[in-house]
Write a structure and sequence with these properties.
CATH superfamily of the largest domain: P-loop containing nucleotide triphosphate hydrolases
Helix content: 40-55%
Structural class: alpha/beta
Distance between the termini: 60 Å
CATH topology of the largest domain: Rossmann fold
Number of helices: 15
EC number: 2.7.7.7
Organism: Pseudomonas gingeri
Largest sheet: 5 strands, parallel
Keywords: DNA replication, DNA-directed DNA polymerase, Nucleotidyltransferase, Transferase
Number of strands: 5
GO molecular function: 3'-5' exonuclease activity; DNA binding; DNA-directed DNA polymerase activity
Number of domains: 3
Order of helices and strands: HEHHEHEHEHEHHHHHHHHH
Enzyme class: transferase
CATH class of the largest domain: Alpha Beta
Strand order of the largest sheet: 2-3-4-1-5
Shape: elongated
């Protein structure tokens, strides 16, 4: 059974309780809030032969086949390798599944995640099935960035926004999910995960708090000229590039925000507050804006999997960062 998360309760009642199901749903929202689990739970319900209280029964033939991963009327489409595109050949295989008759005489259910990883040819190949799915087929599309989808794909689905849980609900859930962490650590993880509780759990598993402590310590030493950009760039080789660019992007935004508001409550996590405040007071605003533009452009390259020289890129970032504080 897919996990049911407390912040999805009312959404689940609404989706599972529909008297008639649409032929395509687009479940969209930030990563790390349980959209995949919601889609799997709906898939199980749609395939179940004797649902109970808006849930799959878990013991009919259909539920047992689904649990074993051998349900003939269920199809899951995802990238063949993590972080790669869904290819047009994969979608063609899916299309030939959609036109077949359901083997167990009920519905066929397709789950695609993440939909935005389809390249343009794959997306176009899917459109036909979205327009006229044959027989009783339901397509469940899961997207972390629905703005990247073709408008024609969005318009052919019932769009369902999946909510980010409130901070209180996330922290309550994290207390059970991460019982060995302190309340303070859980707040920090949730902040680093931009409010997504499942992302917070995976950050904890990656050791992100230790990684961040290493980076923050390095940035402080860089500004005090106790360590060079080159030494730091080489010392951070185990830390994901995207994480580094996210943090520097966040810090440059916080510097700007403080320059505009001088609001000490808006200085971000405690580990960098003093540094952010110091840089805000010592740096000309146009310098902050230009480093922020540069960071965003490089972050985009990291996201698009460009072939980057990691150490040189980090050195370039750190050299510019070290040069920020100059008197106005």
């Amino acid at each position: 059974m897919a996990e049911a998360y407390p912040w999805q309760d009312s959404l689940w009642q609404q989706m599972a309780g529909r008297p008639q199901h649409a032929h395509a749903y687009l479940l969209h929202g930030p990563a790390g809030i349980g959209k995949r689990a919601l889609a799997e739970r709906l898939m199980a319900l749609l395939l179940c032969k004797s649902p109970e209280n808006l849930n799959a029964c878990g013991h009919c033939k259909s539920c047992l086949l689904l649990k074993a991963g051998s349900h003939p009327d269920n199809y899951i489409l995802e990238p063949e390798e993590a972080d790669k595109a869904i290819k047009v050949d994969q979608v063609r295989d899916l299309v030939s599944f959609v036109v077949q008759t359901a083997q167990l005489g009920g519905r066929k259910v397709v789950l695609i995640e993440p939909v935005e990883s389809m390249n343009i040819n794959a997306a176009n190949a899917l459109l036909k099935s979205l327009e006229e799915p044959s027989g009783d087929t339901v397509l469940l599309l899961v997207s972390h960035q629905s703005s990247r989808l073709l408008p024609t794909i969005r318009s052919r689905c019932v769009q369902q926004a999946c909510p980010l849980p409130s901070e209180a609900m996330s922290l309550q859930w994290l207390a059970t999910a991460l019982p060995d962490s302190s309340a303070e650590e859980r707040v920090e993880l949730l902040t680093l995960a931009a409010g997504s509780p499942l992302a917070a759990v995976s950050l904890q598993a990656q050791g992100v708090r230790e990684q961040r402590a290493l980076v923050v310590d390095g940035v402080k030493k860089l500004l005090k000229q106790q360590q060079s950009a080159t030494q730091l760039a080489e010392g951070w080789n185990a830390i994901p590039l995207l994480l580094l660019f996210d943090w520097f992007c966040d810090w440059s935004s916080l510097i700007l925000r403080y320059q505009l508001t001088e609001d000490e409550a808006g200085l971000g996590l405690g580990d960098m507050r003093k540094v952010v405040q110091y840089l805000a007071q010592k740096t000309a605003r146009d310098k902050v804006l230009s480093i922020q533009d540069w960071i965003l452009a490089q972050r985009q390259k990291v996201l698009s999997k460009a072939n980057l020289n990691r150490v040189l890129l980090l050195e370039a970032l750190l050299v510019q960062w070290a040069a920020l504080p100059t008197q106005h």
